[in-house]
Amino acid sequence: MTLHVLRDGGDDLAVVLLHGFPLDHRMWTAVAGRLTAPHRVLAADLPGAAGADADLPEPSVEAAADRVAAELAEAGVTRAVVVGLSMGGYVALALAERHAPLVAALGLVDTKSTADTADARANRLRIADEAESTGTVDPVRGMATTLVGESTRAAQPDVTAQLAAWIDEQSPGGVAWAQRAMASRPDRTDVLAAFDGPVVVVVGDEDAVTPVAAAEHLASSARDAQLVVVPRSGHMSAVEQPGAVAAALDDLVQRVVSS
User: Fold this and answer.
1) CB atoms < 10 A from the CB of 85, how many?
2) CA 162 to chain centre
3) pLDDT per residue over 163-209, tens digit each?
4) Residue 157: CB atoms within 10 Å
């Protein structure tokens, strides 16, 4: 089982948190602890993550979405605010496309709806091959530094250290799986445009991976989106500034409840 209960709740609506790469559900712990809405909070370990790297399907974001949907059904979740950071955002959009009745709202955090460029795709496949051939996570170890913003590197060295520790606990095979899955994903801007629930787009103002321009593209593509730019944060806003991200998600949940 790769679904973790971070908080029990009292009604049929759940908040489901999908992690970024190369991490696992633990990156959401600080955000979950700051959410005030009285709903169940669940965090998934996507295929390939530490603790979920056995019995892997063929690498695809769609396979990850289907597995999350199956586990939510097993947990009795029929309606969810689905929140994804980076790779988790790609899976969230795949859920909205493939399991639409499940998704009441979308939280898209430091992510994008477009496919990789040819160069980015080739780089992912190179890293996947290197992780497998070396049997290490060395090809992604440097991401502990590059994923966070300059402000975090200067003022919160503990965040970088924590990311490094989590990355070290991933498996080379899981890293390869996730890179190949992301490399194969299509553009899902049309899925976002067709989604009729509320959306919040969150981005760190120092995000160099999916910058503010990518977030603006998401917000402008959705029917009912709010854009939240998080100060002093890079690509890992949920770890760098969890309070600001939790506040944005609380507001999204309230929009669902009020609708």
Assistant:
1) 29
2) 17
3) 999 999 999 999 999 999 999 999 999 999 999 999 999 999 999 99
4) 11
